Amino acid sequence: MDVYVYDTPNGKIADFRSYLDGVDHSFAEGRPLGGYDARWEKVQTLQCPRNGEGLFGKLEYLGRGILEDYHELMIFPVVYEGTVEESPAAPQESSSE
Questions:
Q1: What is the pLDDT along the chain (97 residues), one digit of tens a residue?
Q2: In a domain? residue 84
Q3: DSSP bridge pairs for 66
Q4: Which spans in the chain are helix H?
Q5: Alpha-carbon distance 15 to 4, whole Å?
Q6: Which domain covers residue 36, as residue numbers?
Q7: Which residues are 24's β-sheet partners?
Q8: Integer angstrom CA distances of residue 11 from 2, 15, 59, 90
Q9: What is the pTM of this model?
Q10: Residue 25 and residue 20: Cα distance in Å, rounded?
């Protein structure tokens, strides 16, 4: 299963949701969530799978990964120990002079 990987103070976590740090990374260039976006509720209440600590404002997006041990009815986010494929940088505009 393809997942989005985030760094936390307690190590890496993975989730199928692309916006847990307040930026939607499903776009080539991450788009910040709007002020009234319903997804903020999940971002603000997210808890660490290791110790239950609140993670709001403590995540850093690392890139994409593959969750090998996926099974139905998993509770996300999950602790992630796999490799991370860094997201490609946004396309740069070329300037021709």
A1: 899 999 999 999 999 999 999 999 998 889 999 999 999 999 999 999 999 999 999 999 999 999 988 887 788 999 999 899 876 543 334 444 4
A2: no
A3: 2
A4: 40-45
A5: 5
A6: 2-79
A7: 31
A8: 19, 14, 10, 26
A9: 0.83
A10: 9
